[in-house]
Amino acid sequence: MTVTILPPHADGFRLQPVAQRLAPMFGFALLTVSCALASFAFACATPFAAFAVVAAAMMQLRPALLVVTGAWLVNQIIGFGVLHYPVDGSTIAWGFIIGAAALVATAVSSSVLRALPQGRTPLMLAIALVAAYAAYELALLAATPFLGGEGAFTAAIVTRIGLTSAAWLAGLVAACEIVRLVDPFGRKGAMSA
Fold first, then answer.
1. What is the pLDDT of residue 7?
2. pTM summary value
């Protein structure tokens, strides 16, 4: 018996660690826990592009947007409540811009994944990440004339955050695959019945 990693699925979703009806709940749990970890580790460099790709690869656009919004809320609660971000107009505005950029990245991920062929899924997820990350960074950059922060868009910083997002995507996909293989929710049994 061979085990295939990330098999293509007829319904268009590339990651199916759980039954499709459980995907929003699982995605919310996975991304909020991941976001909490990333928020403590990276503060302002949470890998929302990677979160966007995972959400878009697991579910339809509307639940994916809701799940990413939930992850963003966790990030903001940790930032303001635990990490003591300054409560001023600029910081609050940047919080909303980051949330909007994460949603744009999710929509772009969803569009890219739906447009790409189902085969060679790891490559398709990588392409979606590049598109999502570009959309995310461009959305953030578009706010700098109004909110400042142009210095955060050096090649070194953008590259470092991009590589961090790629590492998070690999880790999230690995987590999804482990859940799919372990099948803690009885998905295999339900599918054969």
1. 44
2. 0.85
